[in-house]
């Protein structure tokens, strides 16, 4: 998707603070962090949101969940963390490329970002 900012981050056209990368996904720090550690983990393949996950493309979602624990350990998060994904307008999704917010480094109340 040529006009997608996260595809541009994957392509290196927009800079990001990468914390993890492999052939299927990329993790980088959120520009506007809602916790001491706030990263976004995205598939390299453009998928709009969880709403567009299918049997055919769901492998990358499973993959992302296998890499998140190691990323958070590597970043020194030992007290737990939260994974959030927004889907569509009512949920406040502003970037239409599937992304998992991973937040940690503080105690969070039970509201979406604590
Ligand atoms: P959402 O509202 O769930 O779509 O989340 C989009 C997230 O992307 C927000 O938390 C933004 O702060 C973050 N964001 C937008 N542009 C960038 C960027 N260029 N680099 C890092 N994070 C970004
Ligand atoms: Zn994209």
Q: Care to describe what's here?
A:
It is built from two helices and five strands; from the N terminus they run H-E-E-E-H-E-E. A five-stranded antiparallel β-sheet has the order 1-2-3-5-4, covered by helices on one side. The protein is of the alpha+beta class. It starts with a helix and ends in a 10-residue tail after the last strand. It has helices at residues 5-11, 59-74, and strands spanning 18-21, 25-29, 37-43, 81-84, 100-104. It binds adenosine monophosphate and zinc ion. Adenosine monophosphate binds at residues 5, 14, 16, 30-32, 40, 86, 92-95. Residues 5, 14, 16, 30-32, 40, 86, 92-95 line the site of adenosine monophosphate.
């Amino acid at each position: 998707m040529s006009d997608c900012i996260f595809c541009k981050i994957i392509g290196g056209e927009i800079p990001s603070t990468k914390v993890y990368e492999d052939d299927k996904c990329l993790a980088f720090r959120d520009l506007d962090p809602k916790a001491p550690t706030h990263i976004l983990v995205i598939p390299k393949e453009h998928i709009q949101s969880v709403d567009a996950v299918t049997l055919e493309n769901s492998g990358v979602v499973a993959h992302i969940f296998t890499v998140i624990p190691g990323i958070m350990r590597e970043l020194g998060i030992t007290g737990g963390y939260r994974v959030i994904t927004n889907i569509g307008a009512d949920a406040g999704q502003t970037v239409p490329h599937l992304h998992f917010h991973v937040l940690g480094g503080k105690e969070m109340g039970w509201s979406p970002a604590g």
